[in-house]
Amino acid sequence: MNIIDELSWRGLINQQSDEEGLRDLVDSKDISLYCGMDPTGDSMHIGHLLPFMTLERFGKFGHHPYIVIGGATGSIGDPSGKKAERPMQTMDQVNHNVDALSAQANKIFSGFTMVNNYDWTEPIGILDFLRDYGKLFNVNTMLNKEIISSRLEVGISFTEFTYQILQSLDFLTLYRKHNVQLQVGGGDQWGNLTAGLDLIHKAEGQEAKVYALTIPLLLKSDGTKFGKTAGGAVWLDPKKTSPYEFYQFWFNQDDKDVVNLLKKFTFLTKDQIEDLAESVKTAPEKRLAQRTLAEEVTKFVHGEEALKTAEKITEVLFSGEIQELTTEEVAEAFHGVPSAEISADPINLVDLLIATNVDKSKRQAREDIQNGAIRINGEKLTDTTMEIAPKDSFDGKYIVIRRGKKKYFLATVK
């Protein structure tokens, strides 16, 4: 199957500058292509996955992907999709984020060449920039691109206005140095991508074979943007979003969305995905498609061992056998649940429930205990006079409290 057909079947193509030309190009030879990432933070989130997984798909077809880390572009800010100017980062922040993102990308993705656009942008003086590149950009054309026009009412600085030129310079530089012929980006980047094509054609001639391809904005079946939770972004950094939380995010996807997500976020074959789609219709209660999605994406981002830990935590929480978790697994499993600090001294069970905000009054706490609604580290306790010794559980660091069937609380020992 042609890589373009593969992407089309998976719903990964939004816009192409020249569909027939790109198809002929990838049929005739292995090409080099790239996608950029600005260091606006020190971790990618799942919104970054689709473009780079798309590049990895090209790699599996024998092509040569590049990742451009935007040490230069990230220092001025991309106006795309923003209603106001981005806060300007210090160069120390930019460099820290460049290092963090580079390490993260190298860990997750394979077969890439990684470059930093600061390396070729920083040596260019302002006069050279204006004479060699600014002259090739028509302001009227730039103003008509949605990426700029959407900001005209509220205003845009000259700094962010020039972002389009810098990103175009990336494409031109990669074309000249590495024969990169395709840029891949999100749907909101179409204006920047086509500006890069225009620059190359003006600088190198209309016969230059270069192309642009964007990936559609991913929406859930209810029309809302995919990738956000009540707690915010789903990060690829395990310190920001634990592998267990990451696994649960994918496992909890709706039946209406799961097949689409399997196509886009896994490397499973068409036959495998069609079998899973059938299971959604015939046995939705088994959630086989969701489990497979969670397994595949968690393994891809965090590795086999992290997947095993996430699955173990999931199984333990379902069974209620909390004592089977290690101290480290408790920290991962209950990251983000309501928590409170307590001292290492023994504490009465009723007082523990008050100290951790499980209950608001001692009367309510005693009722919950006597009614069998309270479990400490997986064990049901019904004696209101019980003393709890923090040192006896999870290396003296945590006490896990469950009220009812699903409400968990974590006591962290000082």
Radius of gyration: 26 Å
Helix content: 40-55%
Mean pLDDT: 92
Major sheet, described briefly?
A: 6 strands, mixed
> Number of DSSP strands?
15
Strands of the largest sheet, in order across it?
1-6-5-2-3-4
| CATH C-level class of the largest domain | Alpha Beta
| Unreliable sequence segments | none
> Architecture of the largest domain, CATH level 2?
3-Layer(aba) Sandwich
Q: Assign an overall shape.
A: elongated
Measured between the Cα atoms of the first and last residue, the distance is 59 Å
What features would you describe in this structure?
Helix 10 (163-178) packs across helix 11. This protein is elongated. The termini are far apart. The chain has three domains: 3-214, HUPs (Rossmann fold), CATH 3.40.50; 228-319, Tyrosyl-Transfer RNA Synthetase, CATH 1.10.240.10; 339-413, Roll (Structural Genomics Hypothetical 15.5 Kd Protein In mrcA-pckA Intergenic Region, Chain A), CATH 3.10.290.10. The strands form four sheets. Strands 1-6-5-2-3-4 form a six-stranded mixed sheet, with helices on both faces. Strands 9-15-14-11-12 form a five-stranded mixed sheet, with helices on both faces. A two-stranded antiparallel sheet has the order 7-8. The chain contains 19 helices and 15 strands. Helices cover 46% and strands 14% of the residues.
